[in-house]
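quick one if you have a minute, typing this from the bus. theres a chain ive been looking at and ive put its sequence and its fold in token form underneath. please have a look and point out which stretches look like helix strand or loop to you. anything you notice is useful, everything is just below.

***
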Amino acid sequence: MKPEHRYDCLIIGGGPAGMTAAVYAARAKLKAIVLESNITGGLVNSTYVVENFPSYPSIHGMELMGRMREHVDGLGVPVEEVCEIERLELAGEVKTAETDEAVYRAPAVILATGRKPVALDVPTECDQVHHCAICDGAPYAGKRVLVTGGGNSAFDESLYLLSLGVAHVTLVEIMPRFFAAAAAQEALFASGKAEGHTETRVVDLETTDCRLTAAVLQDVASGRTWREPVDGVFVFLGQLPNNALFKNQIELTKAGYIPAAPDASTSLPGVFAAGDIVDKPFRQITTAVADGTVAALSAERFLRCR
């Protein structure tokens, strides 16, 4: 039998929204726990530099999330990392989250599961395809890499890869133009170590002895294909909502996000939502922090009024 733990509130997800919810839950004297399938920090961990978080004119994403984690730890909120939830039941007065090691129950749940990167859709798989330049970029110093995507993330991460000593970046975007900020585009292409291709898609990868040797690219307009020799691929094609745990239990939008009310409540009593999993016009660290605040305060009110 797995050990069973009782809490006032289960916080599912350890990104900025989940960490903030934990802080406010602790200050409200709620017995809460954070359950995170990976490591705390969410997508912020893969952000090279954050320059729009109040109080920090410029800070590394991992450093920012490390400080949030220290705050949560200092308040005594337990955090379970690399904690894969096998079963999540949100209906009824008591909610249940079961992992491979334990069962957690609480009358309130805050869903802060965020989003996950869109995968590269090619028939050939290899270990040299990544979604985080900060995590995986260092081994590519002196080598050639391909970056997919034309938004700010693709350009910022490309600049970071060059700062690590990557020899050359080939950036491809399927749309007719790049969408990143003009300053980022100018900085990347002025480096002399990057080239960009619009209206271009990656149709396959070539490997030798399980090592990536080239990407097969295709011009969308003409259909022409060519080989681009590369040692690694970094994919920045956007994100999808992390809703697999609850997509059949709770109301979602057609795009898969939670249409939370202004008080963070959802279609199920006692279930609240915060961060990038919420249907909203802007997804920033600051909006996630605000969501986490509201969700925790609303959960505290819900528990008090039961």
User: Anything to note?
Assistant: The domain at 129-235 is CATH 3.50.50.60 (FAD/NAD(P)-binding domain).
